TrEMBL record:
PROSITE patterns, alphabetized: FN3, IG_LIKE
Protein name, UniProt field: Neogenin
Membrane topology designation: Single-pass type I membrane protein
InterPro entries listed in its UniProt record: FN3_dom, FN3_sf, Ig-like_dom, Ig-like_dom_sf, Ig-like_fold, Ig_I-set, Ig_sub, Ig_sub2
Signal peptide location: none
Cellular component terms per the entry's GO annotation: membrane
Length: 1224
């Protein structure tokens, strides 16, 4: 037994008639027994003295003889201890009693941890005498709801102690003891945590596995506190490594099984209340000729066993050209070609097995695949692995081909910080603590705490220097998720697993809503309300406190309710008196703000019940075929005569066949199960204790029942069809078999469409339609939806129809590629490898990525070098870079419908020629809310490492003493003023030129300059000097829009001929000048042998924008006044007409007519994104680079169709940012 008491009795001062409670407690094994003494005399139990085994003494209705000194004695075997004495004395302040005393606790309940199945007692006692000589009433609440006294699970003993005889897990929670009288009410909360020894939820099962396969043993144990789970094999503790892993802190996973792994595996769970264990046997079998077991098996053919003596000619040979495609620190991608010999003539390769292991290690793993490549994950960095691949046909496995690959060295970043925890400090702050990582891999510069409110979609981050940090300005009583990562000179390390903490509760910050008063009699008022707004409750609401007082009175009264009560009657009020009432919400920490005072007046007199009420007024009816709806108003004298209810009688021809009694507040009643086309008499009477009042009558005839309704039941619609219009829109059509063959709706029926994504059928959406189709918008791109329809007519409804499923079209990616990370290529300082993660919303199958990089971030996006990545690869290597140079990288994803947004810029410095230096360039500290935004690099900024002698990855701190080279303010103002003046002059000159040319054009048109040549005469072909290309801005009225109905009708329009169809077979469709331009473009990349992509290649590997060109016109063709067949049409949203049709497979950019004014793109360049040129049947366009007028015609090919076809090349369809000339 301990030497000191942990709890000792305290002195009390009470009024005679109050209660007194003392407590003492001391630790000891076994549990001590307590006895109480008064004035050194042993106390015995009596009617008003109760002693509990847990050390509590309770004295009710204190008398003068009970005053004195009290102490307790604890005995444990041969040891005893006495507590210090406490004095029980009388309170002589009788004046306070006359005014009324609010409740005060003499004993509050205490937080308790109790073992499941044991006894729990929560002690509570309070004193206080109100003006009516009333003692406090003790009530218990759990979670703000008052406990039901009739529930056998709970029991109230003594003056208000709560007893739970058999505690179970559902008894966890917050309990509140509430003491209330007419003066006020007070609350005391206590938390109950039920402890439980470990018990199994899932036990490990016996297993039989094959060599090189994987095995998972599941073991799930419940307990409070959570038990620690550990594993043993044949009685020996299992040490985790690369092949024995503990998953989710409970399950055992064994990789690359060996025969020696056979044995008994035991799962143990233990907390301080006990421990349990369960075992399972593992049997490992050797290989046979069937596929080795693997969880990643994508195809499992049936292969006969026992084929060891099979002729080897029936088996496939080794796979060809096994090589690595991607090599990273944690994974390797292998590729190979099929074997040259697949077996007999009818044999086919059905799958491949990929085995891998660390070199000179025995434990081997395997995966199966049906493709010609495989990605092996979870490798160790800087480790040599031995891979072997063998093919399978229906006769068995062939020989294996072997290759050794060394995984790349991992960037030396810190491991995760250890023992990271979060704890609430206040309702608006949480403290995060952690320890340094086990492997810092250098000096730790800082830590980053990433956090977000659970349920929110935005993270915040803050960088700190120490090992703990207090986050402030959080929301009250909210869950927040945290993770921490350490940073060294190489960048951010691995983050911890997410851990959650909740801010503390607080008092409500707002008052209840919808607060109303209603006088119900001369002595009562009804108070109604709703809880405070959810965001202002700041924790669980445990009740409401109502204060009310009579007008002119200084002191009021208080009524307290449970949290699940939304109205409260105030009774025993004075007649004809005005009362003011207000209400506030209660939490476990206190009371929130009160509402404003509301005022109401009780009736002057009680309602009279000495005679029957008058007859109801304003009776109205609404008849249907089988029912009548009756409405009425109360009697005119109801404000003076008490109405306790209403009586409704009805019958066919006479009113007293059926009788229904209703409540005093009911004013509407629907009479059902009537006969159609029949006359009914209805009688309504008000009633009280005296009897029924005078009736009011109504004569009503029910409607005829529709013959169509009788003959035609409501059958659900059939023949549902869906038409996909776009990535967000689907049109649904159906047929109603209850309509005529013409499917015309002539009645008031309507249809309800129900739809939802196939993967989430619980969240349906509904729309109504009065026609046989519905246009459904705001769908998700590339998502499969399920649709069904039902019909409603009057009060009749059908069941839901059979469902139809369709998928919306793809759209451009909606998110940015994540985690763009550059890394050096070993042994090659002129190359780096970029890796990333796909965007969160691809909105379709990703077809590739565009990587933009430059050495000057001030350049426009179109001037950055573009590197193309095809397919869904997540890494790429940039070559031919300059050593010791800072590069800026960003990227965007693409699919068949276009491009996604651009990712944030990453800054990286290449290493020197000798391979030293280089690495990620650290950016300055940014606030958490703007860390995700892009930034522009400025030469000379101090966060770039200009000094080559500095260590790799070390950033130079800004020098505040350096001179500021910025331009003085006065000089800057003068420069800006000059630029504005020059711009204004240029604009005036340009407007004057436009007006003059327009006037000249009108004069020529009026004089017949553009008329067709006379019949029989051959117009003289103009020379090169005479050619004046039209300005499409000035002469825009020469281009007329063609019929949009033809262009917008995607389904009926004729298909556009392919480029190969428009070129003659004898023509080569090549232009030497364009080939020269292609070579010049390749020379910018640094690869002179690079060949131009084929016309049908959608995404070239690497593109540099060429110089702008100018499109001219064949001057030999006369100008016609007839409307042109083809037009130049700017199509919105970056698509041609028909681009959103299901047949469209590529996204295209809009083609606008170029003018003589330079046009700059304001969006990032779309380099070879599958663009195609707009094809026409009669528009012939020629294009030449902008040089001089004399050289334009010299570069044109004689064959117009050949040149037009050349312009259909994706490369040529992308060029042009300068000056263009068109002629039709």
């Amino acid at each position: 037994m301990a030497k000191m008491f942990s709890i000792t009795p305290e002195t009390l001062e009470v009024y005679l008639g109050d209660i007194a409670m003392f407590q003492c407690s001391i630790d000891g094994i076994p549990q001590p027994k307590y006895s109480w003494y008064k004035n050194n005399v042993l106390l015995k139990r009596s009617n008003h003295i109760k002693m509990y085994t847990d050390g509590f003494l309770e004295i009710t209705n204190v008398r003068a003889i009970d005053l004195g000194k009290y102490y307790c004695e604890a005995r444990n075997m041969n040891t005893s201890r006495r507590s210090r004495p406490a004095v029980l004395q009388e309170n002589t302040d009788l004046e306070s009693i006359r005014k009324g005393v609010a409740p005060s606790f003499v004993m509050k309940p205490q937080d308790a941890e109790v073992i499941r199945g044991s006894l729990l007692v929560l002690h509570c006692g309070a004193n206080g005498i109100d003006r009516n000589d009333g003692s406090p009433k003790i009530t218990w609440l759990k979670g703000g709801v008052e406990l039901d006294n009739s529930n056998k699970t709970y029991k109230i003993v003594g003056t208000g102690s709560l007893v739970i005889p058999n505690v179970q897990e559902n008894n966890n929670g917050i309990y509140t003891c509430r003491a209330s009288n007419m003066e006020d009410s007070i609350d005391a909360p206590a938390s109950v945590n039920v402890l439980s020894p470990p018990k199994f939820k899932t036990k490990p099962m016996n297993a039989v596995a094959q060599v090189n396969s994987e095995q998972m043993f599941e073991c799930d144990i419940y307990g409070v506190p959570p038990p620690k789970i550990y594993w043993m094999k044949d009685g020996k503790m299992i040490e985790t490594d690369d092949y024995f892993k503990i998953v989710d802190h409970k399950n055992l996973r064994i990789l690359g099984l060996l025969k020696e792994d056979e044995g008994m595996y035991q799962c143990f769970g233990k907390n301080y209340l006990g421990s349990i264990q369960a075992s399972a046997q593992l049997v490992v079998r050797p290989h046979n000729d069937s596929h080795p077991l693997t969880p990643t098996l994508t195809h499992s053919p049936t292969i006969p066993l026992g084929l060891q003596n099979l002729n080897t000619d029936s088996l496939p040979s080794v796979p060809v050209d096994l090589h690595e495609v991607i090599r990273a620190p944690s994974f390797v991608t292998l590729s190979w070609k099929p074997p040259t010999h697949t077996g007999p003539k009818d044999a086919k390769i059905i799958s491949y097995s990929v085995f891998w292991k660390e070199k000179e290690r025995e434990r081997e793993r395997v995966m199966n695949t049906t493709s010609l490549e495989a990605t092996i994950q979870h490798l160790k960095p800087n480790t040599v692995y031995e891979f072997r691949v063998q093919a399978y046909n229906s006769h068995g496995p062939g020989k294996a081909v072997v290759i050794e690959v060394e995984s790349e060295e991992e960037v030396r970043v810190p491991s995760p910080p250890r023992n990271a925890i979060a704890e609430a400090v206040s309702p608006t702050s949480i403290r995060v603590k952690y320890e340094p990582p086990e492997e810092p891999n250098g000096k730790i510069k800082s830590y980053k705490i990433i956090y977000y409110e659970v349920g929110a979609n935005k993270e915040a981050a803050i960088e700190v220097r120490g090992l703990e940090y207090v986050l402030t300005n959080l929301k009250q009583f909210r869950d927040y998720s945290f993770r921490v990562e350490a940073h060294n000179e190489n960048g951010a390390g691995m983050s911890t697993e997410e851990f959650v903490a909740k801010t503390k509760a607080d008092i409500p910050s707002d008052s209840p809503t919808n607060f109303t008063l209603e006088a119900t009699s001369s002595t009562s008022i009804i108070v109604r309300w709703e809880p405070p707004p959810k965001d202002h409750q700041n924790g669980p609401i445990v009740g409401y406190k109502i204060r009310f007082k009579k007008k002119g009175s200084r002191r009021g009264k208080t009524v307290t309710t449970a949290s699940n009560v939304k109205f409260q009657p105030l009774t025993d009020l004075e007649k004809g008196a005005e009362y003011s009432v207000r209400i506030a919400a209660l939490s476990t920490l206190g009371i929130g703000p009160f509402t404003d005072w509301l005022f109401t007046k009780t009736y002057d007199d009680d309602l009279d019940e000495s005679h029957v009420p008058g007859k109801p007024s304003k009776v109205r009816t609404a008849a249907e075929a089988n029912s009548i709806l009756v409405r009425w108003a109360p009697p005119v004298d109801s404000s003076k005569t008490l109405v306790r209810g209403y009586t409704v009688t009805y019958g066919k021809g006479i009113p007293d066949v059926m009788r229904v009694k209703l409540g005093p507040q009911q004013r509407v009643y629907k009479i059902k199960n009537l006969q159609p086309a029949s006359s009914y008499v209805i009688k309504v009477m008000a009633t009280n204790k005296i009897g029924d009042g005078p009736p009011i009558y109504a004569h009503v005839k029910t409607d005829k029942e529709s013959e169509i309704d009788l003959a035609t039941p409501m059958i659900p619609p059939v023949g549902l069809k869906t038409i996909v219009l776009s990535s967000q829109t689907i049109v649904l059509t159906w047929t109603d078999s209850t309509l005529s063959r013409a499917q015309r709706i002539t009645d008031n029926r309507y249809y309800t469409v129900r739809y939802s994504p196939v993967y989430n059928k619980k969240k349906y959406r509904y729309i109504n339609s009065t026609d046989l189709n519905a246009h459904i918008d705001h769908l998700k791109p590339n998502t499969q939806y399920e649709f069904s329809v039902k019909v409603t007519k009057n009060l009749r409804k059908s069941t839901w129809s059979m469902s139809v499923v369709n998928t919306t079209q793809e759209s451009a990616p909606g998110g940015i590629p994540r985690d763009l990370t550059p890394a050096p290529v070993e042994g090659n300082p002129l190359s780096i490898t970029l890796s990333w993660q796909p965007p969160p919303r691809p909105n379709g199958q990703l077809t590739g990525y565009l990587i933009f990089y430059t050495t000057d971030s001030h350049q426009d996006d179109r001037d950055w070098v573009v590197h193309n990545v095809d397919g869904d690869k997540l890494s790429s290597t940039i070559k031919d870079l300059t050593p010791d140079t800072t590069y800026f990288y960003k990227m965007q994803a693409r699919n068949n419908k276009g491009y996604g947004p651009m990712s944030p810029t990453v800054v990286y410095r290449t290493s020197k020629a000798d391979g030293t230096g280089g690495g990620l360039v650290q950016v300055p500290d940014l606030p958490p809310d703007i860390q995700q935004f892009d930034f522009k690099y400025k030469p000379g900024r101090s966060f770039l490492p200009p000094d080559p002698n500095e260590p790799r990855g070390v950033n130079k701190e800004p020098n505040e003493d350096e001179n500021d080279d910025s331009v003085p303010t006065n000089v800057m103002i003068i420069i800006i003023a000059c630029v504005i003046g020059v711009t204004f002059c240029i604009a005036v000159v340009a407007v004057a030129i436009v007006i003059c040319k327009k006037k000249e054009y009108r004069n020529k048109r009026s004089s017949g300059t553009y008329a067709s040549p006379a019949k029989g005469k051959t117009p003289k072909a103009p020379t090169t000097k005479d050619v004046k290309p039209p300005d499409l801005w000035i002469h825009h009225d020469q281009m007329e829009m063609k019929n949009l109905d033809k262009s917008e009708n995607r389904e009926s329009s004729a298909p556009t001929p392919a480029p190969s169809q428009r070129c003659g077979e004898s023509s080569k469709c090549e232009d030497s000048s364009l080939m020269d331009m292609e070579k010049r473009r390749n020379s910018l990349v640094g690869d002179p042998s690079y060949l131009s992509p084929a016309p049908d290649e959608r995404y070239p590997r690497s593109i540099i924008r060429p110089k702008p060109i100018m499109i001219s016109v064949d001057p030999t063709q006369p100008m016609s006044r007839d409307p042109p067949v083809s037009t130049v049409t700017a199509v919105p949203n970056g698509h041609f007409p028909g681009a959103e049709s299901p047949q469209s497979q590529v996204a295209v950019r809009p083609v606008y007519p170029r003018t003589q004014y330079n046009t700059q793109y304001s969006t990032p360049p779309r380099v070879h994104a599958g663009d195609v040129s707009q094809t026409t049947s009669s528009l012939q366009v020629r294009a030449v680079p902008q040089q001089n007028t004399r050289e334009k015609l010299a570069l044109l090919d004689d064959d117009d169709s050949c040149l037009t076809d050349t312009l259909d090349d994706p490369y040529l369809s992308r060029i042009g940012y300068g000056m263009y000339y068109f002629e039709f």
